[in-house]
Amino acid sequence: MDLFRSEDMNLAQLIIPVESAHHAMTYLGELGLFQFKDLNSDKSPFQRAYAKQVKRCGEMLRKVRFLKDQLAKAGIPVSKGTLTSKEIDIDELEVKLTELEIELTSINSSSDILMRSYSELLEFQLVLQKAGMFFYSVQSNARAQQRELEESSSFRVEESIESPLLLEQEMLKEPSKQARLGFIAGLVAKSKAPAFERILFRATRGNVLLEQVPVEEPVLDPATGEKMEKIVFLVFFSGERAKLKIMKICEAFGANKYPFPEDAGKQAQMLDEVSARLLELKATIDAGNRHRDNVLSSIASDIELWDSTVKREKAVNHTLNMLSVDVTRKCLVGEGWCPVSAEPQIQDALQRAAYESNSQVVTIFQVIKTKEMPPTYFKTNKFNGAFQDIVDAYGIARYKEVNPAVFTIVTFPFLFAVMFGDWGHGICLLLAVLWLLFNEKKYSSQKLGDIMSMAFSGRYVILLMSIFSIYTGLIYNEFFSVPFPIFGSSAYYCSDSTCSTAYTTGLVKTQSAPYVFGVDPVWHGSSTELTFLNSLKMKMSILIGVAQMNLGIFLSLCNGLYFKNDLNIWYQFVPQIIFLNALFGYLSILIIVKWCTGATADLYHVMIYMFLSPTADLDANQLFPGQKYLQITLLLLALVAIPWMLFPKPLILRSRHIKESQGHTYNMLRDSEHDIVDLDHENDETDQEEFEFSEVFVHQMIHAIEFVLGAVSNTASYLRLWALSLAHSELSSVFYDKVLVLTWGYQNVIIIIIGFIIFAFATIGVLLCMETLSAFLHALRLHWVEFQNKFYEGVGYKFSPYSFATMDEEE
């Protein structure tokens, strides 16, 4: 079984000629089965041999990202490229990327300048139109008023409407002191208009006239390049000081000012010029955009291929930096871990690299013997990979340690289903996950959101969860809390034909044979329903918990036998299995005996007085002959198991350490100076692994106390199976009775539809989402804490090979 223990690993050394190093790294990256060790960890990234190549690839990646950003802005779809047999020359690609970046940068720069000019002219056109309409309307009103005055008066008005009102005073003043009314026109953001108006009046003390005309559509701002709502303003003022203040306020508010002639003829002429210039700029901008789109369209099919090529090139050079250069600088020396089963493939890849690079020297592949702990590697697929991820989230298995994922494939969805048991809800989950499986290829190539990504990656976990939920739902006989007599007739009957007393007095058994499969449907709705189901599910939770904890302890035996650790077998496994089963294994046997015999013994009383008064008679609580003496024996075994776990192992380790240290002192004599140097090195290693009896004893004491207390707390923790199952059943019953059935009784179509909608949303939101997440988390805790702490250390490190496939998935 490949998943039961991790793959056999070897530490290998590669001696690669420089001329074939690049090809070798490329083939090893495609193979993805070799994890390199960094032999240059003492050097900074800039001191390594291939630092320039890595920097060069980083610069090329920046250019590729720039091109992808331009494609995204232009809205041009990017097609997925595939690596062909023809390799892309990295030097030619670098030149091409540089040329494309320069060309697109130039196009963008020109386009930005043209767009800024276009935006300014467009705003100028709006000012000419809106302000011109204002002046025209004012002059028209003035002429109309003048005609009315002439018609109503007996004399003719000789002055023009454009002449000053105080003409005589103006004529008496010097030309430099004549006060002339000026104005400033422009555009300001609509959101800033109230503050703009307020500041103008405060700064000039109300000596201005402000006219505002809103622009119907958003305008592209020349400064920011963003579309925003604006208004055209006209500020009339008198005096140079007022003009300077208004100019500064316009700059502070980011208002764009434009020249506006007073003469109507000049206004029309300027408007025609601006309109013609806008048409020219529009044509130029469109031509530039077409040229840019043509350039981008030509690279859209190759950009992903370039991206992948540059990333691979960077990964190759980054890996080459982890290799050490020999003295002659003709070979690179690398070390790393690889599965034993992959050694032929690795050697074949190295031979192909030497052949394609025309190297005269082949790459040397040799296995190194070491005491260093290898990485942990499991061959997984899309089905069991999610279960392995659940285990790895707790901790990576130590090399060759028993892998809990093998058992998690069955136990995790089963414990979930015990808490979620309802075959109606299980069918809903099954339909949802079948949709994910049906669209597996579609979703696997898309970038999904966080929640959807988690659901899709765990689709096979959800599949088994739904199947097991249907199974346990059939056992509980619950379909959205409604029982169905699927497996034959009931073994009980009601005392009257209407079955009305079933809710008050319970049920009467009519046949000795029980219901064929699962809970008898007639229990649902009876007065003894809650008592019966509580007792059933609570005892079932204890049986499941004790069985799974025993499995965990037996897996620790498997670890002890594999690693040939006699101390763990005799002074950890044996006392643990005795202690757990002397108490809770015995409780499980009592539960089964009570079920089989139909006895009325109080198991709470039996277990409590097993400790408080072990020699007292059991009386009505006795289930079989000799039970009292068996309980005394089991209690003594449990008490003996505690010091058995605590004292022998530290004492034996101390004895072994003393013997080993004496053996080292007897080997002090050496014949040569070289041997004495070796001895000093050995003594240094021995000093580093100094034995501390107090630390070992304290560690063992903590371990023993943790197991003794954990045996009680972990067994109680499995009662969550009963609690969540009961909560799920009662919530489902409440939604059915108080929503669906209640609204159905009104015999009104609208009320029934509303009730069904509320029932559907409550079922999906609470039972299928929140309850699913709750049961998932509780099942996760039972595996991580109650099950895995019996045998699983999880102190290893994961096999992380140098692989192009992993690099692409991470991106």
Automatic annotation (TrEMBL):
Q: Work out whether the entry's keyword set contains Transferase.
A: no
Recorded GO molecular functions are:
ATPase binding; proton-transporting ATPase activity, rotational mechanism
Cite a GO CC annotation: vacuolar proton-transporting V-type ATPase, V0 domain
Superkingdom of origin: Eukaryota
Major localization class:
membrane
Q: Per the record's keyword annotation, is Protein transport included, yes or no?
A: no
The coiled-coil segments of this chain are 83-110
Pfam families, per this entry? Answer: V_ATPase_I (PF01496)
Q: What is the lineage of its organism?
A: Eukaryota, Viridiplantae, Streptophyta, Embryophyta, Tracheophyta
Q: Where in the cell is it found?
A: Membrane
Q: Which organism is it from?
A: Adiantum capillus-veneris (Maidenhair fern)
| GO biological processes | vacuolar acidification
The portions of this protein that span the membrane are 414-438, 459-476, 540-562, 629-647, 744-768
Protein name as it appears in the record: V-type proton ATPase subunit a
Alphabetized, the UniProt keywords read: Coiled coil, Hydrogen ion transport, Ion transport, Membrane, Transmembrane, Transmembrane helix, Transport
